[in-house]
Amino acid sequence: MRFVVKRLVLFVAALIGLSALVFVMLRVLPGDVAAVIAGTNATPERIASLRDDLGLNKPLVAQYGDWMLGLLHGNLGVSAVGGRSVAGQVVTRMSVTFPLIVLSLLIALAIGLPLGCAAVLARSHRLRGLYHGIAIVAGAIPALWGGLLLILLFSRGSGLLGLLPAQGFPDDGWSSPLRALASLTLPALTTGITAGASIMRYTRAAVRDMASSQAVDMAMACGMTRTQAVLRVALRLATPQLVSVIGLTFAQMITGVMVVENLFALPGLGAMLVTDVGNRDLIAVQSELFLLAAFFLLLGLVVDVAHRALDPRLKTAGITSGKATA
Amino acid sequence: MSASKIVISSIWSKVGGKYALVVIGLWLLTAAASLVWTPYPLLDTDGFNVWASPSAAHPLGTDGTGADVLSWLMAGSRTNLLIAVLTVIVAAVIGLALVAAMVSRSGALASTSVVVVDALISIPTVLIALILTVPFGASAAVVVASCGCAYGLNLARILRPSAMLAARSAYVESALWSGASTVRVFFSHIVPNTLPVLCVQLSMSAGTSMLAEAGLTYLGVGVGAGVPSWGHSLSTSVKFISIYPMAVLWPGLIVTMVVVALNLFGDALRDALDPLTNPALREDS
User: Fold this and answer.
1) What is the complex's ipTM, to 2 decimals?
2) Roughly what angle, to the nearest 10 degrees, separates helices A60-72 and A282-310?
3) For residues A84 and A68, what is the distance between their CA atoms, to the nearest angstrom?
4) Using H for helix, E for strand and C for coil, what is the string for A101-153?
5) Of the candidates A140, A158, A255, which has its C-beta nearest B124's C-beta?
6) Which residues lie below 8 Å from residue B122, measured CB to CB, with a gap of 6+?
7) CB–CB of A219/A235 below 8 Å?
8) Considering Cα of B241, then B247, then B249, then B250, what sign does the dihedral take?
């Protein structure tokens, strides 16, 4: 319990620290934020009124306070380019990004866990080498390139097999679930394969560590075969470590998710963030960056607490995180 | 034989190590060569020959401005080399500083640094890059800074167990009692104990920074538009896809081969540096 409280206090502190960092970073921009938003051919009056609207005439601390208060009320501000509320856009975009992330993660787990266990169970030297090779090569493919190769192989139009749509997302969203799912398949495969390779590496390392533990020896002495002992005992013992590793993989997957959203022209959060950064839409960027940072800090918190709950040994050892070496 | 010779020859003795040394060697040679010679000057554009398919004159074709793709790929190797080396240095400095704080004798400093690392470790590279890009603009420095921070945190977390074990050992205790400074003890007793893991992680970081560079540059938060890099070539090749699909292969293949080489190099270096796995090192001393 003390650990959870300590971790929560730290989460809030990190959140405040990051929000201040984001705020300061966007304010050290050379020049006038309002002028940047208004564009090059804006009249001085327009810039002045924009400064007023955005509260840029107030002292920095007051601006920061206003922004924070707004965030607490769920008010993320209004996009300077589209004039639409950022919160509304984030919700719409989530309906693409969230399923994409879940699908990628499922694919990554479906690839990484079985292959990682198989790599531990492999008896011959050559087979182990093959698994190692698969993990290293699949983890070394840039998301952009992986996506392009999948387009060349599978997409309608330019692909060899012509199975799946190459780009875009149905305009009517999820009202035709199959079409929506089809357009998410190639993007999710792209990120899923790379993340799967790293989950495979971590699974292999964690399960291999546990496979030489006394518990596995004991299980085999009780009559389990090595395969049974590894899958039922070692894998279970490795679960807490795997949970925290999968959390981190998830965080690192996000670069790939942004790349595939752009490559496959999906109207997701990542694509929106990149567009807004490109447009210098500071109000939107500020809130979006903060939301993302908050999401990942929360993910870290959940993973740490889950790891702690799953592994009672940590309570006595006083360690906050397990080691994870690939 | 000197220790460095033993290490290099035992890396070379394995298939993976051999592949890694050859690819990394070719990379260094290409980077050096591109300083003095590329098939065409980078800014030499052939307006009558844009989006050209490969030919004898342009082995990998030309891009939308008529610039030679092969020349840009060659020149890109030095940008990526610079990014990889700088990322490794930044990550090592941040990582080791955090490890030093984590194993320090001051309980408050140690526990604070552990929780700070835990809290910040889930922040992805691309988020740091985006935060930095808005005020400073896209550049190779943004890639180095964001990768260096993210990988440094990761490094600290992974090195902590072995550093902790060394810091609580009898030889560190006796070194401290015999009057060695804490800085000296850290670098001559604690860091060498983490060396095998450190090598693997740093060389993986070099590889991951290539992947990050490719992704970030495509998103417009990596190296600037006019700077040659493999990420730049890869992003350009996206536009090739409908004209000459095979052109897509080369930049991605090069990145993948180099990242694989860096990973294998780390593994081979770990095995070669550890006296427990490399008997030749034990016989020498």
Assistant:
1) 0.85
2) 60
3) 19
4) HHHHHHHHHHHHHHHHHHHHHCCCHHHHHHHHHHHHHHHCCCHHHHHHHHHHH
5) A255
6) A247, A248, A251, A296, A297, A299, A300, A303
7) no
8) negative
Q: Which of A109, A110, A118, A133 is nearest to A230 (CA)?
A: A118
Closest partner CB to B131 (pick from A22, A30, A248): A22
* β-strand partners of A142: none
Contact B5, B252 (CB under 8 A): no
Q: Which residue of A has its CA nearest to B267?
A: A326
Q: Which residues of B touch A300 (CB under 8 A)?
A: 118-122
Whether B213 contacts B230, CB under 8 Å: yes
| Structure confidence by residue, pLDDT tens digits, A56-80 | 777 778 888 888 888 888 777 777 6
Residue-range domain boundaries for chain A: 1-81+279-326, 93-276
Which tokens is B37 given?
């010679």
The label of the residue with tokens 């870290």 reads A300
Residue A113, CB-side half-sphere exposure with 13 Å CA sphere = 16
Q: What does the domain layout of chain B look like in residue ranges?
A: 9-37+60-273
Whole-structure pTM value: 0.86
Compute CA A248 distance to the chain's CA centroid, rounded to the nearest angstrom: 8
Q: Determine contact, residues A232/A224, Cβ cutoff 8 Å.
A: yes
Nearest residue in B to A276, CA atom = B134
**Which residues in A lie closer than 8 A to residue B132 (C-beta atoms)?**
25
| B88 against B285, higher pLDDT | B88
Tokens matching residue B225: 């538009």
Residue A274 contacts B where some CB pair is shorter than 8 Å: yes
Q: Nearest-CA distance from A283 to chain B in Å?
A: 12
Over residues A139-181, the pLDDT tens digits come to 899 999 999 888 888 876 666 676 677 777 777 777 777 788 8
| Residue A157, SS3 per DSSP | coil
CB contact under 8 A, A139 and B118: no
Chain position carrying tokens 């300590």: A6
Classify domain A93-276 at the CATH topology level.
MetI-like fold (1.10.3720)
Which of B83, B111, B114, B130 has the highest number of chain A CBs within 10 A, making it the mutation to test binding with A?
B130
CATH superfamily of this structure's domain B9-37+60-273: MetI-like (1.10.3720.10)
Q: Are A246 and A109 in contact (CB under 8 A)?
A: yes
